[in-house]
Design brief:
By secondary structure, this protein is mostly helical. 80% of the residues lie in helices and 0% in strands. The chain is built from 6 helices and no strands. Helix 1 crosses helix 2, helix 2 crosses helix 6 and helix 4 packs across helix 6. The two termini are 63 Å apart.
Length: 187
């Protein structure tokens, strides 16, 4: 049996589909089962190929999405408003009410922070897709291996039942022979 025939037979036994009709992921699972190799982690999940800007976007997203950032931001806003209101009687406020400069700064921060966070989320979504694919491969392989184990156990049980029946038949034959001898000895 050639390796290709073995792969095709495995695919037919486990997935009821010829190897050539399987998806790429299903083929990789059948290949792993045939090779009896462990399912390794996806190399793309292990590699950190982020650029400086990608790492910066991830840090901005991590900081911008935290309670510490919200607390610090609220404190800065309160300080800004407090300073401007406190200095107003002395005509020293640098951004008097209605705080137009503060609104400009807030708009700029929001305009920059939102796309940076979205870039980080897009990268995380791609990583999550790779994780989901890896989980699918592991789960499919586990399911197929369990099916193989069930088939092996069923075959063992059938062999065991056949052996028990054979032994019982032999024991009955011996008993019949003994009963026949005892009946002859009485006569």
């Amino acid at each position: 049996m050639t390796p290709d025939d073995r792969l095709d037979q495995l695919a037919r036994d486990l997935l009821a589909t010829p190897y050539s009709a399987l998806t790429e992921i299903q083929r990789s699972v059948i290949d792993l089962i045939a090779a009896e190799a462990p399912t390794g982690l996806n190399k793309a999940l292990l590699a950190d190929d982020r650029t400086f800007w990608d790492r910066l976007a991830d840090k901005v997203a991590a900081v911008g999405g935290s309670w510490a950032f919200i607390g610090g931001f609220c404190a800065c806003l309160a300080l800004w408003i407090g300073l401007n209101l406190g200095l107003k009687p002395f005509h020293l406020s640098f951004d008097p009410y209605p705080f137009i400069f503060l609104n400009l700064i807030l708009s700029t921060v929001a305009a920059i922070q939102a796309p940076v966070i979205m870039m980080s989320q897009n990268r995380q979504a791609a990583k999550d897709r790779l994780n989901a694919e890896h989980d699918y491969v592991v789960n499919l392989r586990a399911e197929l291996e369990i099916m193989r184990l069930h088939a092996k156990l069923d075959a063992l049980r059938e062999r065991e039942i056949v052996d028990i029946l054979r032994c019982n038949t032999e024991a009955l034959d011996i008993l019949k022979t003994q009963v026949a001898k005892m009946a002859e000895a009485r006569d």
